[in-house]
Amino acid sequence: MNDAMAFLTSLFHTSFLPIVAAMLAGGLIGLEREYRDKSAGFRTFIFIAAGSALFTLLSRYFGGSDISRIAANIVTGIGFLGAGAILREGPRIAGLTTAAIIWLTAGVGMAMGAGEYLLGGLVTLLALIVLWLFPSFERRIDRLREQRIYEISLQGGVESFDQIRVALESASLRLIRREYFKEGSGLLRCRWVVLGSVSAHEQFVKFLLDAPFVAQFRY
Known about the structure:
The chain crosses the membrane at residues 6-29, 41-61, 67-86, 117-135. Belongs to the MgtC/SapB family. The structure is a single chain. The chain has 7 helices and 6 strands; from the N terminus they run αααββααβαββαβ. It is α+β, with helices and mostly antiparallel strands. The chain has 2 domains: 2-142, no CATH class; 145-218, ACT domain (Alpha-Beta Plaits), CATH 3.30.70.260. The strands form 2 sheets. It has a 4-stranded antiparallel β-sheet with strand order 4-5-3-6. A two-stranded antiparallel sheet has the order 1-2. The model has no long low-confidence stretch (mean pLDDT 83).
């Protein structure tokens, strides 16, 4: 009986506890992603952390002389999973943060599987701090430097382009790229990619609303 209890206790500490710790860490990170309605959520991060911990544990038994061989492949394999979270939305690339967190969660799971509970716990705590606090700083920065794409249909010929350019300069907006198209209806259509603060963009939008030569616009 004592031998059985000793075996179960040893099994718990050496095999079961690392998996539980990894699932808890992955669950905490997953809760934040689930709350923000991201592509990878609560269960996904639990499985990523638990799977990484399990493979790290198994590398001790099946890794032979090089116990890092199986664990090293986790880093490569998790990259394919992270790539699935990256999507292109127009000119923007979405999902990079989620992909990076998937990679980090795998690292936390590996730390738990190796018995480094303090290290894994501290990294989880730091990740949660970054995920919860840093978005507010990002929003403030975005308000200072927001990129917009304006598609404008103009009347009045090429002279209208000069008035658009002057309006951009007076609003302190920086022109990144511009394209011109001639439409069959006689209107001139242009696409302007500009960078500036939110207040500067609103000033430019007000100019477009008041300008008589602007047939329509969108951004």
